[in-house]
Amino acid sequence: MNELPEHVRRNRALWDAWARKYVVSGEANWARDNPTWGIWGIPEAQVGMLPDDLAGKDAIELGCGTAYVSAWLARRGARVVGVDNSEAQLATARRLQHEYGFDFPLLHGNAEAIPYPDASFDFAISEYGACLWADPQRWVPEAARLLRPGGRLVFLVNSFLMALCVPAEDGVAATDRLLRAAFGMYRIEWPGDFGVEFHLSHGDWIRVLRLSGFEIEDLIEVRPPVGATTPYPFVTLEWARQWPCEEVWKARKRA
Ligand SMILES: C[S@@+](CC[C@H](N)C(=O)[O-])C[C@H]1O[C@@H](n2cnc3c(N)ncnc32)[C@H](O)[C@@H]1O
After folding, report:
1. What is the pLDDT at residue 193?
2. Which of 164, 223, 225, 247 makes a 20 to 30 Å CA pair with 43?
């Protein structure tokens, strides 16, 4: 535990404490056959997070939490591995896995250093997992190492624009003002005990992805439909209909 980077140690304690708040949504998502994504429950058809040819492929979820995304991958025929930094989150994942009759590996660990050999996977995915809570200078090269040439990385995370516009006070929604500087934004610690997040500009994402050996195939700025709802207080539908509050990055490891 001591050799873990400081942000990983802090985020582990945070997620072990938060895990019980994610049980109900984890159960609901395990029960769902058709994936929906992010804080607005965007249908898979709108964002195409999952390739159609998953059957027989090796897939890894980086920061799987309760592992419902891993379950969606397994149901599509992938050989999946879920990795998460929180044993408490994995306890829910293990219980649900058992209830649904799956037995894919669930690893307790840091997505920045995963104990699998190079080129073990065809597909890596993260929805608000390692892509938000791990250091991109570490987890992106690690994802590249784990993927085979031509393998795909897809992740969904808060938009950079929203990170500029959301007030530091907990529970207050993003405003139409730029509240902090874009230059120098990378690691964010919100006041209070909210762990360590990483929010990168588009330029920084492009650079870290390309330097790690990826070609970027798409960047989808997610727009929730009229009438969409979210349990999260940090953005309103009115805001998210005007500006992207979430983004999906799709990259492919260079052959
Ligand atoms: C919001 S959950 C993501 C799971 C699910 N997609 C969801 O949205 O509920 C964030 C997860 O990332 C995990 N996490 C944070 N830092 C991590 C790291 N360095 N390596 C692996 N998992 C990490 C946390 O333990 C937590 O379970």
Report:
1. 83
2. 164
The residue behind tokens 């897809």 is 154
Averaged pLDDT in 10-residue chunks for the chain of 255 residues: 87 98 98 97 98 97 98 98 98 98 98 98 98 98 98 98 95 96 95 93 98 98 97 97 98 97
Asked whether 127 lines ligand 1 (CB < 6 A), one says yes
Instruction: Name the pairing type of β-strands 79-84 and 106-108.
Output: parallel
Is 85 a pocket residue for ligand 1 (Cβ < 6 Å)?
A: yes
Read off the tokens for 218. Answer: 């798409």
Task: Residue count of the chain, please give it.
Answer: 255
Q: Which amino acid is at 66?
A: T
The pTM is what? Answer: 0.97
Is there a contact between 51 and 152 (Cβ–Cβ < 8 Å)? Answer: yes
Q: Which atom of ligand 1 is nearest to the CA of 112?
A: 19
Q: Determine the pLDDT at residue 192.
A: 86
Nearest CA to ligand 1 atom 5: 65
* Mutation to probe ligand 1, out of 23, 27, 61, 89 (largest number of atoms < 8 A from CB): 89
The sign of the dihedral angle between the CA atoms of 71, 219, 44, 222 is positive
Both structure tokens of 189: 């610690």
Reported as half-sphere exposure (CB side, CA atoms, 13 A), residue 23 has a value of 10
Q: Is 197 near ligand 1, meaning CB less than 6 Å away?
A: no
- SS3 assignment, position 72: helix
**Test site for ligand 1: of 10, 42, 64, most ligand atoms within 8 A of the Cβ:** 64
Q: What is the pLDDT of residue 2?
A: 55
